[in-house]
Amino acid sequence: MTKAIPRIGSRKNGRRIQKGVIHVQASFNNTIVTVTDVIGRVVSWSSAGTCGFRGTRRGTPFAAQTAAGNAIRTAVDQGLQRAEVMIKGPGLGRDAALRAIRRSGILLSFVRDVTPMPHNGCRPPKKRQVAVSTRTLQWKCVESRTDSKRLYYGRFVLSPLMKGQADTIGIAMRKALLGEIEGTCITRAKSEKVSHEYSTIVGIEESVHEILMNLKEIVLRSNLYGTRDASICVRGPKYVTAQDIISPPSVELVDTTQHIANLTEPIHLCIELKIERDRGYRMKSPNNYQDGSYPIDAVSMPVRNANHSIHSYGSENEKQEILFLEIWTNGSLTPKEALREASRTLIDLFIPFLDAEEEDIHFYLEDNQNRFTVSFFTFHDRLANLRKNKKGIALKCIFIDQSELPSRTYNCLKRSNIHTLLDLLNNSQEDLMRIEHLRIEDVKQILDILQKHFAIYLPKNKF
């Protein structure tokens, strides 16, 4: 018989146990099987004694097989699908219990023997030494599903980590996933029939404001840089969806069934659209109305949500952690692609600390104000050192991300393998104009920054 335990994953509570731990304790006189969840709460347990075996029969393999079957049957009814097995003890029922667990259909992650080893004779055991783990970090996607065209889910695990490392990585990855990954969206719409944003058009159920909100929800997938034009030109009566958008070849619509408007009369609807790639959230400005077009709040965030959780295991002296990452995306990226993109972004942010020379921080007191000012980047001092040193060592230590360039210009230079100021000076203005997605305004901005911060003029052509 199985001891009745309150079902912590019952249907009444809306929770089911999918993963757990099966503990088998096999002594010479009895075999006890306990099933717990990953936190350690008991789901069910059984033993040879509670199954009706008495005397020496409690230590037999058949008694262990019966106890294991009863304990697991209750756990399977609560939704247990995967489990880890911990076997302890030298009894005869350990192998029989393991066979019963395998026949139950539960997917076993691993089987571990935790039987303590006896020490030599009557002397006390030696003090355990803390061993440094030499295992490399490994990650794995443990769950991946597509709830809809605009909602992807992925769950990832990273281990083994030392105590405190999982929280450090989890916080950084969550911030990078939510704020550093670039996305493509519609940022502006224009129509000749519209007098203002909150007007209505005869023959269309939705107002202009509602149409703009529907355009804001459209999910796009692309690798473009800069602004691209798109349009909608339809004749009613018609149910207008994202499929009616005429977009450039480099832009792909994730969900073509997404609703935009409903035309109830035979009228023409023509809307000109602007598509941009950016990161984060950009709120429209009330003064940003140009040529009769209306700005749309740009939500360039492919990741809808990201969570991280930590599971600790091991003793107090050798505690290790497992990091779980949950990622929801809007369909323009898969969770695995978002994880890789966020990791690359974090690596790019920390590369300057590995290669750049340490700066001398100077504190000086202003005459009129009683406060200190810190000068972190002494560009003019670096330029003076550069003129003295013909090898250009200082230029190798100045990265282009220190030059206050816009993110789009910075990404275009990075894709052309221009990482430092020395790489930039090896190109002429004509070479910069050949870089893909780099506009004339961007080149002028690069020249202004070089002249302002470094007093360097970039030649038009290579000599």
Automatic annotation (TrEMBL):
One GO biological process term: translation
Xref: InterPro entries: DNA-dir_RNA_pol_insert, DNA-dir_RNA_pol_RpoA/D/Rpb3, DNA-dir_RpoA, RBP11-like, Ribosomal_uS11, Ribosomal_uS11_bac-type, Ribosomal_uS11_CS, Ribosomal_uS11_sf
EC class of the enzyme, as a word: transferase
Domain named DNA-directed RNA polymerase RpoA/D/Rpb3-type: residues: 153-356
Record-linked PROSITE patterns: RIBOSOMAL_S11 (PS00054)
Any one GO MF annotation of this record: structural constituent of ribosome
Enzyme Commission identifier(s): 2.7.7.6
Family matches, as Gene3D superfamilies: 5' to 3' exonuclease, C-terminal subdomain, DNA-directed RNA polymerase, insert domain, Ribosomal protein S11, RNA polymerase, RBP11-like subunit
Record keyword Signal present: no
Reactions it catalyzes: RNA(n) + a ribonucleoside 5'-triphosphate = RNA(n+1) + diphosphate
A Pfam entry, by short name: RNA_pol_A_CTD
Protein localization: Plastid, Chloroplast
Keywords: Chloroplast, DNA-directed RNA polymerase, Nucleotidyltransferase, Plastid, Ribonucleoprotein, Ribosomal protein, RNA-binding, rRNA-binding, Transcription, Transferase
GO cellular component: chloroplast; DNA-directed RNA polymerase complex; ribonucleoprotein complex; ribosome
Family: Belongs to the universal ribosomal protein uS11 family. Belongs to the RNA polymerase alpha chain family.
Protein role: DNA-dependent RNA polymerase catalyzes the transcription of DNA into RNA using the four ribonucleoside triphosphates as substrates.
PANTHER family per UniProt: 40S RIBOSOMAL PROTEIN S14/30S RIBOSOMAL PROTEIN S11
Protein name: Small ribosomal subunit protein uS11c
Organism: Cinnamomum micranthum f. kanehirae
